[in-house]
Specification:
The structure is a single chain. This protein has 3 domains: about 130 residues, 3-Layer(aba) Sandwich (Rossmann fold), CATH 3.40.50.620; about 120 residues, Serine Threonine Protein Phosphatase 5, Tetratricopeptide repeat (Alpha Horseshoe), CATH 1.25.40; about 180 residues, DNA Cyclobutane Dipyrimidine Photolyase, subunit A, domain 3, CATH 1.10.579. It is built from 21 helices and 5 strands. Helix 3 packs parallel to helix 4, helix 5 crosses helix 11 and helix 15 packs antiparallel against helix 16. The longest helix has 22 residues. The chain is α/β, with parallel strands linked by helices. A 5-stranded parallel β-sheet has the order 3-2-1-4-5, with helices on both faces. Bound molecules: flavin-adenine dinucleotide. Flavin-adenine dinucleotide binds next to helix 9, helix 11, helix 14 and helix 16.
Length: about 475
């Protein structure tokens, strides 16, 4: 009469409804993590998320051990793997927290029927969102396509529940069931080991998530409304990867914000809204399963994208000659994360200055971000490209020099990641090609040798982008 609890995108013990239900059942509890890269449509995790997953599972395993429970690791298609495990553990019940990505939903639906056919009780619980995506509807009964009314509806209709406590004790399943060894999954990079910067930056796991939240509420989030745009400031929460792996829930964030009076102001309202954007992205994905591969606005199907592998590689490696773009791409490569303002700048640069398809950028982010998320990544790429829901208009083309000057005025961000130009003055830092020869010489910069010249001219690139855009508008 074992209860089998599944872990997937919810690598935590607190506020885990499936785990609580299992603990409350008073029956032996077995716990398993299933790595499913085989069910139809499942998108294999990128490298940075595999690194994170390895460490997060290590942390979860340790935490479960404090309750006397061993985490069983299995790999394979969800329905088949869980059915086999249920049989081996003699489970009469299987509990899990819901997923909302379309392939995850399909795989879980299939699993549920397989379990029920075998006479096993199968129950799912609310997962990692404040809202269940089918619950919030527009006046005409459809899904939302615009953020502001979505946010209004969310605030009005969703009253976030109090987060559930971590079970104090439960009855562990004592049977002898083997699982894979985590090392056998080879989630970590070997040669080259590119994860040094990730190790320095992050502490995957529930305790790491909690520590980030506390630091943010304890002064780290002061001035969030304006500081969140300053790329060289540590002014955002850094919670995205913890949220993506379910090491913390939005309910826990809401409760923490509610509990502190000084956090009631504008800063934290803005912060809540950002978390609201995450909800909106999931809402979009739930209702538009092809968000990562199809233009939300089909006018963009006719867009004349270029293909240029060399330009793509220069962008990926942070060798575009635009310091703010290069700093951002190197931050991504070194730490597995990039500041939100910087994400908008590099995405705009790829799509509008280089004319490359947003999907090529989305794929690079998918592989390199520790927070790569099936909803937020494509939704934001489409937002920048202009093809998305409630998107920025295509003709709004960021000028990387002005963005740098405005959001990195003292050049802290650029100097941290593009050390070869760190000795340039603030005045020339964001456009070294405008610096007098003498200033370059003094700063030890030799354009085209120690640091690239701009790979495209901003003005010309802008005009090309606008005429490409006109071609699809005229085709209407
Ligand atoms: P904070 O400023 O502390 O925000 C708190 C939380 O709100 C974040 O952790 C995140 O969960 C959510 N959030 C904030 N901004 C957004 C947003 N624009 N869209 C959705 N959720 C948001 N975010 C991801 O989590 N995964 C992605 O794969 C991802 N890809 C992106 C791609 C592009 C091109 C762009 C422009 C943005 C992308 N974002 C993505 C959104 C945003 O950049 C990150 O969520 C944010 O930078 C994470 O840092 P933080 O946790 O310190 O954010």
């Amino acid at each position: 009469n074992t209860v089998l609890v599944l872990f997937r995108h919810d690598l935590r013990l607190s506020d885990n409804l499936a785990l609580c239900a299992a603990a409350n059942a008073g029956r032996p509890v077995a716990a398993a993590f299933i790595l499913d890269e085989e069910s139809e449509g499942a998108r294999p995790l990128g490298g940075a998320r595999r690194w994170w997953l390895h460490h997060s599972l290590t942390a979860l395993s340790k935490d479960l051990k404090t309750l006397g429970v061993k985490l069983i690791l299995r790999r394979g298609p969800m329905a088949k793997t869980v059915s086999a495990l249920a049989e081996e553990t003699g489970a009469a019940t299987v509990y899990w927290n819901r997923r909302y990505d379309p392939p995850g939903i399909a795989a879980d639906t299939q699993m549920k029927s397989a379990l029920q056919e075998a006479g096993i009780e199968a129950e799912s619980f609310a997962g990692h969102l404040l809202h269940e995506p089918w619950r919030i509807k527009t006046g005409s009964g459809g899904p939302y396509r615009v953020f502001t009314p979505f946010w209004r509806a969310l605030v009005e209709h969703v009253h976030p529940r109090a987060p559930a406590d971590r079970p104090k004790s439960l009855k562990p399943f004592e049977g002898d069931v083997t699982g894979d060894a985590l090392e056998d999954w080879q989630l970590l990079p070997t040669t080259p080991d590119w994860a040094g910067g990730l190790r320095k930056t992050w502490t995957p796991g529930e305790a790491g998530a909690r520590a980030r939240l506390i630091a943010f509420l304890d002064g780290g989030g002061d001035g969030y409304k304006t500081r969140r745009d300053r790329m060289g400031d540590d002014g955002t929460s850094g919670l995205s990867a913890h949220l993506a792996h379910g090491e913390i829930t939005p309910f826990q964030i809401w409760q923490a914000l509610d509990g502190t009076e000084e956090l009631a102001g504008e800063d934290m309202l803005t912060f809540r809204k950002e978390v609201g954007w995450r909800e909106f992205c999931w809402h979009l994905l739930f209702h538009n399963p092809d968000l990562a591969t199809q233009n939300f606005n089909s006018d963009f199907d006719a867009f004349p994208w270029h293909r240029d592998d060399r330009a793509l590689a220069d962008w990926q490696r942070g060798q575009t000659g635009y310091p703010v773009v290069d700093a951002a791409m190197r931050q991504l490569w070194q730490t597995g994360w990039m500041h939100n303002r910087a994400r908008m700048i590099v995405a705009s640069f790829l799509v509008k200055h280089l004319g490359l398809h947003w999907r090529t950028g989305e794929e690079w982010f998918w592989d390199t971000l520790v927070d790569a998320d099936p909803a937020s990544n494509p939704a934001n790429w489409q937002w920048v490209a202009g093809s998305g829901a409630d998107a920025a208009p295509f003709f709004r083309i960021f000028n990387p020099v002005l963005q740098g000057e405005k959001f990195d005025p003292q050049g802290r961000y650029v100097r941290a990641f593009v050390p070869e130009i760190e000795n340039l003055s603030d005045k020339h830092l964001h456009q070294p090609w405008k610096a007098p020869v003498e200033a370059l010489r003094k700063a030890g910069v030799s354009l085209g040798e120690t640091y690239p010249r701009p790979m495209v001219d901003h003005k010309a690139a802008r005009e090309n982008a606008l005429s490409a855009y006109k071609s699809i508008r005229n085709a209407d």
